């Protein structure tokens, strides 16, 4: 793929690096575009909302965050209702999900008193909005990475996070796997290039035959995150709920794409000013979690999980209490549950310490 590139500050920085050192791995390109300390997309942009590049479930309906707050309270009870629990959200956006979750969770006796809220983010614009929304709440802390979280019983919420974590891409050439990289063409435009040969991808499930041009994506960023979370719990109970769009089984395919103004675009367009995303390979996530000693629940499509958690009942009560907003509430819930949209395209997976029972919404 070759695309014209807006000459952003990050594009210039990356080109200087490539002229000096050669092509870089796809994972390094993703990480730079999204989290570069000076020019990264999440470092500088306000991406969420009608005026941004995308909209997430918590912004569509307050019911989404409320259900996840009640979900967290039930998990806390399943952990034995410890006197202190870390409720973590990684990639918390504007703080909407956590605000709605805490409002609902306060209804469960004892839960609010046990809570220590931790938000993992590197975006100064987003953290400013989170602080504005959550400023009145006690015991809220911010961290730059999961590795900085305190130890102890932990519940993690990760909505539309996994798709933004860097992936390593490998490409088939002459029956062998090679690292796929981003480099420059003769006109100094960004392009994919085939890098050095590499070992067999460390995937438990992958297509058996390699053809020229076949691309596999390896969830290296997700592995790093899960390893950090398991390490920080110090052997204590851990429960993770991740909701994202993707596929349930590992398959060939390049899913890297840019997102700008609610539309897809080339991943090489305006580096640092365009979101980058890949489709989540839930089979890989489950394999990684199993390697780390976690039990896996799901994946389920989003509509099934939300239905099991009582979204229709909660929406009905909310509409009755707010008749002037009933149409908007109904429309938001319909969008979350749409069978040909978010309801089936998004999937949820639960990861937990093996001593915990199946997570709410996943049990038979």
Description:
It is a single chain. The model has no long low-confidence stretch (mean pLDDT 91). It is built from 14 helices and 16 strands. Strands 2, 3, 4, 5, 10, 14, 15 and 16 form an 8-stranded mixed sheet that branches. Strands 1, 6, 7, 8 and 9 form a 5-stranded antiparallel sheet that branches. Strands 12-11-13 form a 3-stranded antiparallel sheet. By secondary structure, it is α/β, with parallel strands linked by helices. It has one domain: Vaccinia Virus protein VP39 (Rossmann fold, 3-Layer(aba) Sandwich). A hairpin with a 5-residue loop joins strand 7 and strand 8. 36% of the residues lie in helices and 24% in strands.
Q: What name goes with the CATH superfamily?
A: Vaccinia Virus protein VP39
Q: Fill in the CATH topology.
A: Rossmann fold
Helix content: 25-40%
> Measured on Cα atoms, how large is the radius of gyration?
21 Å
Terminal-residue CA separation: 45 Å
Please describe the topology of this protein.
Elements lengths: L8 H13 L2 E2 H10 L5 H4 L12 H4 L1 H17 L6 E6 L5 H10 L5 H4 E6 L3 H11 L5 E4 L10 E6 L8 E6 L2 E9 L5 E8 L17 E4 L1 H14 L4 E10 L9 E4 L2 E3 L9 E3 L2 E2 H10 L2 E8 H7 L2 H11 L4 H12 L4 H4 E8 L11
Parallel strand pairs: 2-3, 2-5, 3-4, 5-10, 10-14
Antiparallel strand pairs: 1-7, 6-7, 6-9, 7-8, 10-16, 11-12, 11-13, 15-16
């Amino acid at each position: 793929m070759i695309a014209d590139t807006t000459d952003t500050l990050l594009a210039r920085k990356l080109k200087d690096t490539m002229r000096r050192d050669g092509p870089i791995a796809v994972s390094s390109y993703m990480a730079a575009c999204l989290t570069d300390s000076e020019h990264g997309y999440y470092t500088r942009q306000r991406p969420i909302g009608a005026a941004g590049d995308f909209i997430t479930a918590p912004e569509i309906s307050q019911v989404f965050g409320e259900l996840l707050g009640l979900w967290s309270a039930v998990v806390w009870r399943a952990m034995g209702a410890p006197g202190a629990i870390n409720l973590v959200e990684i990639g918390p956006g504007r703080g909407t999900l956590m605000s709605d979750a805490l409002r609902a969770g306060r209804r469960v006796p004892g839960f609010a008193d046990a809570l220590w809220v931790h938000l993992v983010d590197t975006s100064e614009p987003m953290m400013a909005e989170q602080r504005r929304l959550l400023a009145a709440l006690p015991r809220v802390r911010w961290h730059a990475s999961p590795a900085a979280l305190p130890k102890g019983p932990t519940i993690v919420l990760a909505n539309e996070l996994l798709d933004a974590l860097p992936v390593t891409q490998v490409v088939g050439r002459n029956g062998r796997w090679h690292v796929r990289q981003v480099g420059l063409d003769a006109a100094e435009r960004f392009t994919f290039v085939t890098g050095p040969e590499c070992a067999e991808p460390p995937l438990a499930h992958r297509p058996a035959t390699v053809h020229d041009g076949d691309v596999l994506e390896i969830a290296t960023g997700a592995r790093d995150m899960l390893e950090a979370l398991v390490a920080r719990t110090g052997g204590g109970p851990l429960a993770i709920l991740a909701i994202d769009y993707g596929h349930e089984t590992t398959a060939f395919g390049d899913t890297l794409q840019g997102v700008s103004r609610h539309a897809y675009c080339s991943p090489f367009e305006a580096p640092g000013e365009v979101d980058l995303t890949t489709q989540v390979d839930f089979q890989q996530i489950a394999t990684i979690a199993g390697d780390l000693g976690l039990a896996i629940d799901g994946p389920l499509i989003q509509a099934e999980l939300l239905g099991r958690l009582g979204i229709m009942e909660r929406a009905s009560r909310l509409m009755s209490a707010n008749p002037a907003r009933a149409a908007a509430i109904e429309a938001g819930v319909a969008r979350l549950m749409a069978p040909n949209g978010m309801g089936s395209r998004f999937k949820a997976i639960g990861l937990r310490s093996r001593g915990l029972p199946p997570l709410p919404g996943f049990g038979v």
